[in-house]
Protein: SigE family RNA polymerase sigma factor
Amino acid sequence: MTRQAGGASVDAVDFDQLYHAHFRSLTIQLAAYFGDFSQAQDLVQEAFCRAFARWGKVSRYDDPVAWVRRVAWNLATSRWRRLRTAQSYLRRQREEYVPGPDPDRVALTRALAALPPNHRRVVVLHHLADLSVTEIAQQEDVPEGTVKSWLHRGRAALAAQLASQNEVTDHA
Structure:
C-alpha cells in the first residue's frame, strides 16, 4: 500500500492490472481441473466480477489473486456438483429400452381379446395372477362352479384361437 499526504491509504493494487496479469493463468488452472476451457473462462470471469464488487476489501488482502483463485475454484466445485447431480437425476429418468413383445405374446394377447369378458377375466386371474378358483369366485361374487365353467370354456376357446393362428402361420 502507498500512503497519501495526511496518512490516508490508497490501494496499491489496481484491479485492471491484476485482471490482465492473472486472468489467463487462472483460466488455464481451472480448465485443467474442470476439463472445459470455456467453462473455466466463465468461472474465472465470475470470480473477478465478485472481486470487483468487493474491491475495496479484496485489494487490501496480502494476496488478492489467492482470493480470486479460491472463489473460482469454489465456483468450479459447485458447478461440478450441480452437473453431477443433474446427470444422476437424468440417468434415473431415462427410459430403459424394452424390446417389443415376441410373436407368441402377440398371439396370446390377440386370442385373449377374442374371449368373452368373463372368460378372459377368470383365465387371467387364474393363470397370470395365480388366484385359486375359490379366490376368483369370492372376487367375482359367483359360485365356484361358474368360475370352473368359465375357466374351462375360456381355455378351450384360447386353445382353438391359438391353434387356428398357428395353422395360418405354418401355411404362410
In short: The two ends are 95 Å apart (CA to CA). Helices lie at 15-34, 37-53, 55-58, 64-93, 103-114, 117-127, 133-140, 144-171. The first helix runs from residue 15 to 34. Confidence is low (pLDDT under 50) at residues 1-11.
